[in-house]
Specification:
Layout (H helix, E strand, L loop, with lengths): L17 H21 L2 E8 L1 H8 L2 H8 L5 E4 L16 H13 L5 E5 L2 H7 L6 H25 L4 E5 L15 H10 L5 H20 L4 E4 L4 H6 L37 H29 L1
Parallel strand pairs: 1-2, 1-3, 3-4, 4-5
Length: about 300
């Protein structure tokens, strides 16, 4: 911790004016704030796909940590958030090496947020899959997640991994107009699922992945399903924020107002990510960061 000492010396012939005192006080405060920024500790590594990358670019974690009084901690994610990436791709040696390099260069990191698997699902899931085909896909994605998790945990005995995934997409309001340029072909490739079919499958896949957390005390899982419905509501239908309880209505998409620029069938507005990471903070990060901080303080 840096120490700042400012000594003011005055003679009888030089009594400071209020303007002088105020300038000195302002300088002191600026130096203190600058020192606090320097003292920030990298504690969390963000790994994942476009949801992780957009959270990183939107500075979502920094905003949430600041709002909750935990801005002494910082998140690292510039090199390890890659739009379009799949869980399968993160098992490749070069991607694992990237994770290892970031952890070696940031020895204070003890928590990893893993947000992958969504692209694997969108690429290979279809509404007409048989039960066995769906199970095979679940097992493949889960196996890739397990490989990534095992590699991360091998790097440092103090690391915990938090599995943080997605909320419901919107392939209802995005199938016409400008959004349809991207969303309609993707919807067709999934065999034109209803909101109920798609949401139910997404929940089933996440529950399958969450099984990893149930068998390893160093892995946790927080679900975000229904957060956009709960926080945005559907005002055009006289459904206000808070009317639909978590985990939401499977027969509905996330509200279009929550989607990126109201044009995206899968990604959230910055405000949506703020809500999602606040949920992650409330359910996991607050206890994780505060417990470790107190343990360090008491040593």
């Amino acid at each position: 911790m840096w120490k700042i000492k400012i000594i003011l010396k005055f003679t009888r012939s030089h009594v400071p004016s209020w303007e002088h005192l105020w300038a000195c006080l302002t300088l002191t405060l600026l130096l203190l704030f600058s020192t606090a920024a320097v003292a920030q500790t990298n504690r969390v590594l963000l790994i994942g796909d476009s949801w992780a990358e957009q959270q990183w670019n939107d500075q979502t974690h920094a905003n949430v940590l600041l709002a909750n009084g935990f801005d002494q901690y910082a998140v690292v994610g510039g090199a390890t958030t890659i739009s379009g990436s799949t869980a399968a791709e993160w098992t490749a040696p070069d991607r694992l090496q990237l994770i290892q390099d970031v952890l070696l260069n940031n020895p204070d990191i003890d928590t990893v947020q893993l947000t992958v698997g969504g692209n694997d699902f969108l690429d290979d899931w279809r509404a007409d899959l048989t039960a066995q085909q769906q199970l095979d896909l679940q097992q493949q994605i889960s196996s890739d997640l397990q490989l990534i998790i095992d590699f991360i945990l091998q790097q440092d005995a103090n690391i915990e991994i938090i599995l943080s995934f997605y909320d419901y997409p919107n392939f209802v309001d995005t199938l016409s107009g400008i959004p349809a340029i991207f969303c309609f072909p993707l919807w067709l490739s999934m065999s034109q699922p209803s909101a109920m079919e798609l949401n139910a499958a997404a929940v089933a896949f996440e529950n399958f992945y969450a099984g990893v957390a149930m068998t390893n005390h160093r892995v946790e899982h927080v679900s975000h399903f229904g957060l956009m419905q709960f926080n945005f509501g559907f005002p055009d239908e006289n459904i206000q924020p808070g009317d639909i309880p978590l985990p939401g209505d499977l027969s509905r998409p996330s509200p279009i107002e929550a989607m990126r620029n109201e044009l995206d069938c899968f990604h959230l507005q910055p405000e949506g990510y703020d809500i999602l990471i606040q949920n992650l903070f409330d359910q996991y990060l607050m206890n994780r960061l505060d417990t470790v901080f107190k343990a360090t303080f008491e040593q």
